[in-house]
From TrEMBL:
This is Palmitoyltransferase. PANTHER family: PALMITOYLTRANSFERASE, ZINC FINGER DHHC DOMAIN CONTAINING PROTEIN. One of its GO terms (cellular component) is membrane. Its EC number is 2.3.1.225. InterPro entries: Palmitoyltrfase_DHHC, PFA4/ZDH16/20/ERF2-like.
């Protein structure tokens, strides 16, 4: 179990709210609801939610047998192996296609180049084959870990009854009606200013900074970067490191295949007694073309993420309008704080770019609780209790956990 101290520190490095915050923040910086939450049974009642509720009721009725947490999960994710592996509930076809490509490229390399390297180039050729095999194994392992692991899903119902206030109707607008709005909490970024922590009406939690709700997975994910359709999973705090490792090893393996394929073709065509193009050299040319097509988009994506890591940004943050990328707000008004007003275009960027890379790749990872056993009521009522180890993560993932935030007051972390 992670200790409380690093969790408090980590809370500033979570993923940012998605681009829909750009328009809503400029108007009111508030999350709008139609009625007080305590007058509703649920904001987003779904069949899946009701199923989870029935499981809770059964446990409260006296069932003693622990239930794995993934069985009470209310998102759209699919689980297997007792919750140890998970993927998005979206279509699996892109993931299947990506997996086939990741297997086909090494298979073609071995069929047309590997055997030739192994038999014709002696120890050097055998060493080359082993290096390529190591790159491919790392690529497969990191791809599987990225696609099938918890990206950093936050538990639900940490803030089921958020503070609200009633907004009076506009007297100048005859069609205006009063409405309840959920209060926004503010988290201080040391030396930079305040960022908004907004309440998620689906997950019933205050989102930590840099956290977004994925509409495809129906979860709030820590430090969300993007949802990858080809891996069928969100890319967030817990799987960003293996995602970068996957891109790196895939690009290296593709370039490695291109280099040795060209060497094979040139050697076969220029060797004494060469008979010109043979079936293996024609196949090697096919491998080279396939590897170029495989490497080009991945190399571009890797370069893009190196740029993001160098400046300590996420894809969601970069896609926001320029005026809202910084995310700093004036807690007295709730409006975005522009650069010319004393804000910054990126409150998370450190002076040392290597520190930015370390934040992205080396930050502590909160352990996933999806596959762990526990009474279902603990998942629903995950609240701070004296001596309750199950509540430690929930306490420190709240924006006001490390400070003394109350309604209308900023929270310090």
């Amino acid at each position: 179990m992670d200790t409380l101290a690093p969790l408090k520190r980590v809370s500033l490095d979570e993923a940012s709210k998605q681009t829909d915050a750009a328009s809503s923040t400029m108007s009111s910086a508030q999350t709008r609801v139609a009625a007080p939450l305590h007058q509703k049974e649920s904001l987003d009642q779904s069949e899946h939610t009701r199923t989870a509720g029935e499981a809770h009721d059964a446990l409260e009725a006296g069932q003693e047998k622990p239930v794995r947490n993934y069985r009470l999960h209310q998102g759209t994710n699919r689980f297997c192996l007792g919750g140890r592996l998970m993927t998005s509930g979206d279509s699996l076809l892109p993931l299947i296609g990506s997996s086939l490509v990741a297997v086909l490229m090494p298979a073609l390399f071995w069929a047309f180049n590997g055997a030739w390297l192994w038999t014709e180039l002696g120890k050097g050729g055998k060493a080359s084959v082993f290096v390529f095999l190591a790159l491919v194994l790392f690529m497969w392992a990191s791809m599987a870990r990225t696609a099938l692991s918890d990206p950093g899903i936050l538990p639900r119902d940490l803030d089921p009854d958020p503070p609200q206030r009633y907004l009076e109707p506009d007297p100048d607008d005859p069609d205006s009606t009063g409405q309840w709005i959920v209060e926004v909490k503010y988290v201080q970024v040391p030396g930079k200013g305040y960022v908004a922590s907004k309440w998620c009406p689906t997950c019933h939690i205050y989102r930590p900074p840099r956290t977004s709700h994925c509409r495809l997975c129906d979860n709030c994910v820590e430090r969300t970067d993007h949802h990858c359709a080809f891996l069928n999973n969100c890319i967030g705090r817990r799987n960003y490191r293996p995602f970068i490792l996957f891109l790196t090893t895939a690009v290296l393996a593709a370039f490695y295949a291109i280099a040795f394929t060209l060497y094979h073709i040139v050697h076969a065509l220029t060797a004494p007694g060469s008979t010109g193009w043979r079936w293996d050299t024609i196949g090697a040319l096919v491998v080279a073309v396939f590897a170029v097509l495989f490497a080009t988009p991945l190399a571009g994506l890797l370069a893009y993420h190196v740029r993001l890591m160098w400046s300590n940004r996420t894809t969601i943050e970069l896609l926001r309008p320029a005026a809202l990328r910084g995310g700093l707000v004036d807690p007295s008004t709730g409006l975005p704080l522009l650069v010319e007003e004393g804000g910054t275009d990126n409150p998370w960027r450190r002076s040392n770019p290597l520190g930015n890379v370390k934040d992205a790749l080396g930050a502590p990872r909160r352990g996933s609780r999806k596959a762990k056993e526990g009474l279902g009521v603990k998942w629903r009522d995950w609240a701070p209790r004296e001596g309750a180890r199950e509540a430690e993560t929930a306490v420190d993932m709240r924006p006001d956990a490390a400070g003394s935030a109350v309604e209308g007051q900023p929270a310090r972390v």
